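Bench notes, bay 3.
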Amino acid sequence: MRITIDTVEKIYPGGVRAVDRVSLQVNDGEFLVLVGPSGCGKTTLLRMIAGLEETNGGAISIGDRRVDGLPPGDRDLAMVFQNYALYPHMTVRKNMAFALELRKLPKAEIERRVLGAAETLGLSPLLDRRPKELSGGQRQRVALGRAIVRQPAAFLFDEPLSNLDARLRVQMRAELKRLHRRLRTTAIYVTHDQEEAMTLGDRVVVMKDGTIQQIGRPLDVYQRPANRFVAGFVGMPPMNLIRGTVAGGIFAGEGVRLALPGRPDQAEAVLGIRPEHLTFRGTGERLTLRVSVLEPLGDRQDVTLTTPTGFTLVARIDSGAELRESEDAAFTVDPSRIHLFDRIGARLETPELLEARP
């Protein structure tokens, strides 16, 4: 089911604008991820869609029906929270069936839906257990099952994996992708974890201070960030951002000089290079940098580097590279991988870099 958000806003007492006239359309069957730092408004927006928060303006529609004036129970949405919210005294079967029993569905239909969801989620052997007898991952699957049996118009996920350990989060992400591929129900997923956003979303919505900074497919947002905030937020380790100026076709800042032929002068500019695009002994424009810290990560390593002025950069390279701390090393940059932003943070066209020298 399509969900349309039209200039929605939320203002708390004291004039705090948590969501600032946000407009967004979620396509039928799409898995859309809202991502951003704590306090950016993503959870507030989700709660307004669910009906758990009132709006101070704008409209929310599900399909062709406007719902922002309706109570949560009349919106045909199922929400999955990070704390599972299971009834501890009920079995898995009862937890999954409870909402359907309240709706007075026939017992045979309830059983059919519960058994079908349990089979999909691998919960069939656990139907007679209570939540305290389950692992964290199993409890989260029960919460998902409780949402699935309702057969809603859309699913709303509020950081559902944040209480799981790292290995289980990876496993549950894969299960969510498989589940969505099978059900093809519209889903809106809130997370502060950019890795979840990149791996789960058909599209991602990057938010900051109650506003949308960029909407796009995960790789498009990663490869072509719309502004400096998105560039610094999406990607781990974060993009290296170097402040400087562009004058006479030369970028200069923090001990780095790069030729930018044909570029207009910029009194203030920021040059961006992702850590994985700083290559040790590769091809491209050369930078001589001092190795400060080596952090082995198995098949790769993160290298903290300093420019001649002491400015810090980070490179992510193959673990086999022979580097020593406190020694200079030659790194290269592919000109096509460079990002450039103006003084207010808006993206400028990718420059052609003809030379790079510290």
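Next record in the batch:
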Amino acid sequence: MIKVLVAGLIGTVAGVVAMIIVIVLAGTTTSGASSVGIGALPLSTAALSSGPASTPTSTPTSTPPPDTGGGSTGGSTGGASGNVDNGKTIFTGSAGCGGCHALAAAGTSGAVGPALDDLAGDAGKAGEPLDAFIKSSIVDPGAFVASGYPDGVMPTNFGTTLSASDINDLVAFISSAQK
């Protein structure tokens, strides 16, 4: 029990530190940011190795998806009702998913959590359709823990810190990126 609590605490602290580093390197804050994120980060692997990036002078490139009236913002090839492009922005930016998870479509190589390129097997083991599995993994990460990874490392508050729209966009993006 103590090991799980310590692992959870370490994971939470590591996540907070990673988010602070991303915000500092981006040269911006989250004050006044909408639920669609703070925009694309002006970072590359070269910028990370050579020091802080310069502060962008333009406004963030992320804009809320248009209201199409049907509840879906379109753009998904995986069947989820969300905006794939906004999901990628959230994955690589404001939610910080790429800091812990590898996903080729996002260009991320995090190794704290499982790679997300091929989730069909785990969805089957969990007895859920792929999109439902991805969503439950975001909002209740302890419901199914990938083999080889400890429970309690992934933050459990994404269901309250991300809007329903942002979660749907993340699901659409991750679903569309499956092999």
